[in-house]
Structure formats: structure tokens, C-alpha cells
User: What shape does this take?
Amino acid sequence: MTNNLLFNKAEFLLSAPSIKQAPDDTGKEVAFAGRSNAGKSSAINTLTNNKKLARTSKTPGRTQLLNFFSLSEDCRLVDLPGYGFAKVPKAIKQAWDRNLAVYLQERQSLKGLVMLMDIRHPLKPIDLEMIELCENFDVPFIPVLTKSDKVSNNVCASTQQKVLKETNAPHVIAISALKGTNCEKLGKILLKYVDG
Assistant: This one.
């Protein structure tokens, strides 16, 4: 099955304030995580060829819930709350952090995490904390550098090499949701997690 056929079927399933309200922990999920301004929702919308699927906003941090999208009867994408610099009360930030940790630790259907970072500002301390959580809980992760259209090809290549070296990840992909660059490639990699 090509990624277009699978990801184009994406439909909103539900939003959950915590893992307790999430769909049954069966099947396979790939989650998208990143700082509040990393472009998670845009990446999901480009991957699924549906600009209205995940909410995007010029105000970072609008994703405050665990948002689940069904791809098939037993495959899902999950848009996790953005972390970092969102202008929200501290108590809400702390609740997001707890939800993320619980989700990564306890969710049996989670097969991989797409770790999105702005290519101009990768590997901030909070990103490294997230990667460490994935390693601690044995969650495979894929660093994805967003907004690649904002830098030159040379900067793009060198940043990919830097992130590859510092994370020991099997893949580091640079994408542009605006131009669709490498979104097809990302989809093919994600298929191994949800459709393999």
C-alpha cells in the first residue's frame, strides 16, 4: 500500500485531555511531537493531503489535547500537545508534560514518535529531554527537521548530519510542509510503523 492511499484516509477520531480518554490501546499509532512552534499540525496536514485535518495557528501552543486521527480500523496518527514556549498558564504546561510522559511510557499501541524540530533551531534542551524520554521508554523516534525551505541546501544537509550524529537516529529527514518537500519520503518511513 502506498502512503498516499493510507494517509489520505486520515480522519479526525477524537481529542483527549489525558490518556484515560484516549481510544482503546490496540492497533498501531505514530505520534507527532515537537515544540509549540515546530510545525506539527502543518506536517500532519501535508502528509495526509488535508489542510483542515489538524488545527494550525499562528499562535504557538494551540494543540492542548491528544488529538487522534484514524488511518484505518487499527492504525492512527496522534498530534501531541506542543511543548516549550506556548503562552499558556504554567499549570497547563505541567499537565501537558505529565500527559506526554504517561503516553510515552504506557501506550502499548505507540510504535514510533516523529520528533519535529524547526531546522533553524534544532536540539534545544527541551527537545533533548523528549528524546531522552523516548530512549528511556524504548520508543523509536524519527527526528524530522521542519521548514527546510527557510534555509539553503548546504545548511539543510549540515544540520541533518549534526542531528543524525547527536541523536544516533536511523533517519533524519528535512521537510517543508509549505512546499511538500520530502513529505512523501516521511510517509514511506512511517508506513513501516503503522502498516508493517
Remarks:
- The beta strands are 11-16, 28-34, 66-72, 75-79, 110-118, 141-146, 173-174.
- The chain has six helices and seven strands.
